[in-house]
């Protein structure tokens, strides 16, 4: 007799399947990630009756639907302007970063506007959720909570309660009794996400899935999980810092360049509407090695402080310790400064940091890096009220950057008096009153103007 089920070994990182156990996954290269799972063969079916027929795309009746606002402006910004009905949103982040806190606060805002919301937790009891909600001051009669991991029970609950918004915390705890594998396995996560996606599309219920992350920082489970959902959000930040950044890596209904900035406080997450003021609040005055530059996060300009420390090396090979910046980019710019400006940086250690725990990687901050290193090397502070921006090429030229007028507008708003921009940008800029804008063509010219 043929067996009704067969056993396969599935990689818990990427979903690769093999009939035999393997020590190393040939697809993702991870070691000891295979787990045994049972597979049932699909029942043979005849041709089904066609109930849904394709229609011409121009004949679809499109009604203008307003987005659902959560009441958290930074959250709505990252979502693309609010929640779209029937959307499936996946939120990942390190343990303790604030994913569940953000979900409770968002549901509280939705419940306050008359929406019926359902919070399904597979990790906490309803008593624990109540204690946390009371601490966050997010208790509302329109907010339903339940502790459940059985997917069948959750589906029947959704059908009976008919919520306007649903949160599953977390997708790795969901369990489908049709599968014999343990919760959190690739097959369980894939099947649970698929059923929740079909439910969201048929009922138009916006659904949030909270996902665990691996030690590399990626969302645990198969990559198929990120392909199925409409929006993928990552909650970034260090638990030792109070600031959290919500960033979209995929969004079918909005831009993936927007970020939301939050500050973790005793009563939960609080929005930071003006990140530039927060990041520059503790900037030291007249300190060598400190410089302010402007970076773009989506359509939002943010002023950040770059700090550099250049000291004599005690080793044969100088150290390059970089936090928040691209290590290779800093090494490249140090080589340009040595070649084009005659600074002997190969005999010095270079330490760089972005104040506030922010990560910046766009080319427009190259001049900020060069200015901070030069300031520390020469032991001369950059004059107060000056700010620099621009991309640096290998020949020492300063290249044009994007959104220069938006950046200069933010610089003016923050009270800076003088702004150094690439000369090619200055030729195309409209005049901005209230701030002196100076064009620079090379790194040597910029350092001479600054010092």
Give a verbal description of the structure.
The protein is α/β, with parallel strands linked by helices. The chain has 3 domains: 6-39; 69-273, Rossmann fold (3-Layer(aba) Sandwich), CATH 3.40.50.300; 278-450, Ribosomal Protein S5, domain 2. Helix content is 27%, strand content 25%. The protein is built from 12 helices and 21 strands. A 9-stranded mixed β-sheet has the order 6-5-7-8-4-9-10-11-12. The chain has a 4-stranded mixed β-sheet with strand order 13-14-16-15. It has a 3-stranded antiparallel β-sheet with strand order 2-1-3, with no helix packed on it. The longest helix has 18 residues, at 186-203.
Number of discrete domains: 3
Describe the biggest sheet?
9 strands, mixed
* Beta-strand percent range: 25-35%
Residue runs with pLDDT of under 50 for 5 or more positions? 43-47
Would you tell me the structural class of the helices and strands?
Answer: alpha/beta
**First and last CA, distance:** 86 Å
CATH superfamily of the largest domain: P-loop containing nucleotide triphosphate hydrolases
CA-atom Rg in angstroms: 27 Å
What is the residue-mean pLDDT, rounded to a whole number? 87
From the coordinates shown, what is the CATH architecture of the largest domain? Answer: 3-Layer(aba) Sandwich
Question: Globular, elongated, flat, extended or rod-shaped: what is the shape?
Answer: globular
Q: List the strand order in the largest sheet.
A: 6-5-7-8-4-9-10-11-12
Secondary structure: number of strands: 21
Q: Do you know the CATH topology of the largest domain?
A: Rossmann fold
Q: Which bin fits the share of residues in helices?
A: 25-40%
Counted by DSSP, the helix tally is 12
CATH class of the largest domain: Alpha Beta
